[in-house]
Specification:
This protein has about 375 residues and is an alpha/beta fold. It has two domains: about 1-175 and about 355-375, Glycogen Phosphorylase B (Rossmann fold), CATH 3.40.50; about 180-355, 3-Layer(aba) Sandwich (Rossmann fold), CATH 3.40.50.2000. Helices cover about 40% and strands about 15% of the residues. The chain is built from 14 helices and 13 strands. It has helices at about 15-25, 70-85, 95-110, 125, 135-145, 155-160, 215-225, 240-250, 265-270, 285-295, 305-310, 325-335, 340-350, 355-370, and strands spanning about 1-5, 30-35, 50-55, 85-90, 115-120, 145-150, 170, 200-205, 230-235, 255-260, 275, 300, 315-320. The strands form two sheets. It has a seven-stranded parallel sheet, with helices on both faces. Helix 11 links the parallel strand 12 (about 300) and strand 13. The longest helix has 17 residues, at about 95-110. The chain binds ligand GMT.
Length: about 375
Amino acid sequence: MKIAIVCYPTFGGSGVVATELGIALAGRGHEVHFITYKQPVRLELISHNVHFHEVSVPDYPLFHYQPYELALSSKLVDMVKLYKIELLHVHYAIPHAYAGYMAKKMLAEEGIYIPMVTTLHGTDITLVGNHPFYKPAVTFSINQSEVVTSVSESLKEDTLRLFDIKKEINVVPNFIDVVKHNNTYTECQRDLMAEKHERIITHISNLRPVKRVVDVIEIFDRIQKDIPAKLIIVGEGPEKERCEALCITKGIENKVLFLGNSSEIDKILCFTDLFLLPSEKESFGLAALEAMASGVPVISSNTGGLPEVNVQGVSGYLSNAGDVEDMAKNALLILKDDETLLRFKQQAKEASKRFDTKNIVPLYEEVYEKASNKVL
Ligand code: GMT
């Protein structure tokens, strides 16, 4: 099948999932066209089955805001016609579902009927899409998609609670290539980051308030009072400066490394002993799944879709968002001795296998089949 994938090409989870999906679909013989404003960060390889079409918005002094969805919908129309694309798969409702709907309508004027699948990722529903500025357009474009998917049961429930949705929502969880995450780095270069006797704790996110990065520092502060440890924070975002300042106030700045955005997540996870994800909201928690697939146990909050990913007492522990005492206590339970840590590492890896690419990508193929049979 010829599929257009529309996504955010940045470090966010939705872009990562969309990119990995495109790569996996191409591997299964589909022709995949990424249509977005920049080559997706995880898309290293353009091949005869994987294409990338850049959407550019001409700069014009009259525009206070650049009309991205207009440029995107025009680009979609052109690419569908040029490559005879058979299906649009848009990731993240805002503004992609809206632009996709406009493209569908323009194409229909020319007698070309193309189905659209919209995948909801989380903040497009729980944070941004829910705002009265966007809500009518988000509701409309979700209802106009042939098939709607969400990345967790929890996100499906949130969507049905917050919006007037007339469509069935199919849950297709995020996925991970378990084989790729099988640590191939035997030594993992731990010594680059920490002394032999120190535990390495990692947090990866876009450092936005919803991630509660301050809690990451609070949890780590309690851990390092009990056992020798280092904290690695990967990502860039608005909470970074506040967290750097907090580390100085607590006198732990020499134990915390802020690495910025990294394209070496696999290497970092390879030498990580514990992953922290204390988010306020999290529709799935792809970062937690990536950690688990690399054999890293997870201490997380119990919000949103996290309980569908992190298994209490098996791949790690879950606590109420904000309960840093409980999270630190649970972290110490896992880290206290080598034998317990090894057990949790193995269990985390095992628990991640439910979400292996080979189990989930066929579910998207079924969704495409369903969408193709009911073009609106
Ligand atoms: O977490 C973010 O702020 C980024 C956001 C995105 O759009 O990339 O992540 C959302 O989608 C991911 C992929 O489906 C999920 O794993 C994240 O849980 C979800 N984030 C939130 O719900 C806060």
